[in-house]
């Protein structure tokens, strides 16, 4: 018989548990703090963050997903919002900050509803209804256009405020050219656009190569530096004497035998080089090593060879030149070779690089990104990756929306009308969802140093006439964003709303956080006591 009053331990000692309203408050607070962290980076006038890791490496960026990935986040609810940003990045490539701040605002508005004793499930249901309706509205206000000029505007909008300001248009045109080159049957595989970055020059010096740039040099100085109408062989096996599969011992009793053995090895290597030359190849890219002797023979044959090329680069070369990747030199024939107009070794920023230009297929291209310093070129690369994502999404979907907070204001306006047609407490949740969407134009105004309330009032009034009215942060006025050329893919907004609402719903339905011991902090299960009762540790 158990002694009366003795506690029954179900969970192991050291487990920390937060129940009910406290758990919800905690998770909502974590979401709000995370959203506030990235909020100042939104829009053309957004500020940058400097992130310093434990080794002292610095990242300077205003790219939402980069900030969240670099931060050392511990709070479980905050981690869920980081997943929202990562999904947004993977699906569209842009809109990560938008998705996180909408999710944070949805949680903030939900807290007010919970304080009014509305059940979390009802709030979550209302949010789901509102998200579905918002997608319908978004479909109605989207514009069907995919011309080159529209794609350039989409790319420029994505890059505004990301350190590429002065070279926005030339970069946007390079990106649109790159996407159009690799597009096949209405689909774009962004893996076929390689980004090679080198500091030591201005952004305007960035170029697009119809082919592939390999960050390697010739293996032998006797090889030609430049070849026209090159025939390219791709090999994923080494050009050297094969080692035996098992441990073997060769017994040599006579110096003549030794000489014969060396000559035989040389003959084997020469045979491999002859085979490459017989196929008609003038350029060889090998994924593995090339023997010193093989290098000598290749140079004598006038073949430009590069060794230890990354597997991904070999695949891009195959896509660009039409070559077949061969595993055995003996199998190499003229049919396996690819073609390129020029193969040149150039010195960029003090390092040799191989340019495979004017490739036959050109279904794989390379953007050579330049910038004055390493940090500048890294940030330009992030901006270009975002722009490639949005241009690809536009090419695939063929639908765009106006920027500058215009779609959010229009969705909020129509959702408020829709809320009046709903009976029950869900009506309050739908209205809260509508108000949450207004955080985007509100933040754009705040980051530009404008009065957010005046800007929202002006935007609401302008939307009585046109759904394309947005905030021009440069002159502080409400403008027709469609005419101003501030355009974003519909997919960016669609994904942001979907991810934000689903994450908010999931966090709202949690009423119990059980943190096991054995993490960083044995008493709090890896969570700082402050994180469980108030502010989550972010860094």
Task: Describe the protein.
With 539 residues, this protein is an alpha+beta fold. It has helices at residues 20-39, 64-70, 76-91, 96-115, 120-141, 148-159, 168-182, 255-278, 292-300, 311-321, 374-397, 406-419, 426-437, 439-447, 452-462, 481-484, 490-508, 529-533, and strands spanning 16-19, 49-52, 58-61, 143-144, 193-199, 207-209, 212-214, 226-235, 283-286, 304-306, 325-326, 338-348, 351-359, 365-371, 399-402, 469-472, 477-480, 487-489, 512-515. Helix 5 crosses helix 13. It starts with 15 loop residues before the first strand and ends in a 6-residue tail after the last helix. 47% of the residues are buried.
Topology:
Layout: E1 16-19, H1 20-39, E2 49-52, E3 58-61, H2 64-70, H3 76-91, H4 96-115, H5 120-141, E4 143-144, H6 148-159, H7 168-182, E5 193-199, E6 207-209, E7 212-214, E8 226-235, H8 255-278, E9 283-286, H9 292-300, E10 304-306, H10 311-321, E11 325-326, E12 338-348, E13 351-359, E14 365-371, H11 374-397, E15 399-402, H12 406-419, H13 426-437, H14 439-447, H15 452-462, E16 469-472, E17 477-480, H16 481-484, E18 487-489, H17 490-508, E19 512-515, H18 529-533
Parallel strand pairs: 5-14, 8-9, 8-11, 9-10
Antiparallel strand pairs: 1-19, 2-3, 4-15, 6-14, 7-13, 8-12, 12-13, 15-18, 16-17
């Amino acid at each position: 018989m158990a002694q009366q009053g003795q506690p029954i331990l179900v969970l192991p000692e050291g487990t920390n548990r937060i129940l009910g309203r406290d758990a919800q408050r905690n998770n909502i607070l974590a979401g709000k703090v995370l959203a506030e962290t990235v909020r100042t980076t939104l829009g053309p006038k957004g500020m940058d963050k400097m992130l310093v890791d434990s080794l002292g490496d610095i990242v300077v960026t205003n790219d939402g997903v980069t900030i969240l990935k670099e931060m050392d986040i511990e709070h479980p609810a905050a981690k869920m919002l980081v997943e929202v940003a990562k999904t947004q990045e993977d699906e569209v490539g842009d809109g990560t900050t938008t998705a996180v701040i909408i999710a944070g605002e949805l949680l903030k508005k939900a807290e007010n509803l919970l304080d009014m004793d509305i059940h979390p499930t009802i709030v979550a249901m209302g949010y789901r209804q509102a998200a579905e309706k918002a997608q319908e509205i978004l479909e109605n206000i989207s514009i069907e256009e995919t011309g080159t000029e529209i794609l350039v505007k989409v790319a420029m909008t994505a890059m505004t405020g990301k350190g590429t300001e002065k070279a926005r248009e030339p970069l946007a045109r390079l990106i649109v050219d790159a996407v159009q080159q690799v597009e096949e049957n209405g689909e774009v595989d962004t893996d076929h656009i390689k980004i090679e970055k080198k500091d030591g020059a201005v952004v305007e010096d960035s170029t697009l190569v119809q082919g592939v740039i390999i960050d390697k040099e010739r293996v032998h100085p006797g090889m030609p530096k430049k070849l026209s109408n090159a025939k390219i062989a791709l090999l994923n096996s080494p050009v050297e004497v094969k080692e035996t599969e098992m441990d073997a011992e060769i017994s040599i009793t006579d110096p003549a035998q030794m000489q014969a053995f060396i000559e035989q090895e040389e003959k084997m290597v020469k045979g491999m080089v002859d085979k490459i030359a017989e196929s008609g190849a003038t350029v060889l890219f090998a994924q593995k090593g090339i023997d010193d002797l093989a290098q000598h023979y290749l140079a004598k044959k006038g073949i430009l060879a590069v060794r230890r090329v990354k597997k991904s680069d070999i695949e891009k070369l195959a896509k660009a030149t039409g070559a077949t990747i061969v595993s055995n030199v003996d199998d190499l024939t003229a049919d396996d070779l690819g073609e390129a107009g020029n193969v040149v070794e150039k010195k960029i920023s003090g390092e040799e690089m191989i340019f495979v230009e004017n490739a036959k297929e050109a279904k794989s291209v390379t953007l050579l990104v330049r910038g004055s310093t390493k940090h500048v070129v890294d940030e330009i690369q992030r901006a270009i990756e975002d722009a490639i994502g949005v241009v690809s999404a536009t090419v695939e979907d063929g639908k765009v929306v106006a920027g500058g907070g215009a779609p959010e204001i229009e969705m909020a306006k129509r959702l408020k009308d829709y809320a009046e047609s709903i009976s029950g407490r869900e009506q309050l949740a739908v209205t809260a969802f509508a108000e949450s969407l207004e955080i985007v134009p509100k933040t754009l105004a705040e980051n530009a140093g404008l009065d957010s309330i005046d800007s929202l009032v002006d935007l609401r009034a302008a939307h009585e006439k046109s759904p394309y009215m947005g905030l021009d942060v440069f002159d502080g006025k409400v403008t027709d964003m469609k005419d101003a050329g501030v355009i974003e893919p519909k997919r960016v907004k669609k994904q942001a709303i979907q991810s934000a609402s689903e994450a908010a719903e999931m966090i709202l339905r949690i009423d119990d956080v059980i943190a096991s011991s054995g993490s960083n902090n044995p008493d709090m299960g890896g969570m700082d006591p402050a994180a469980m009762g108030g502010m989550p540790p972010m860094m």
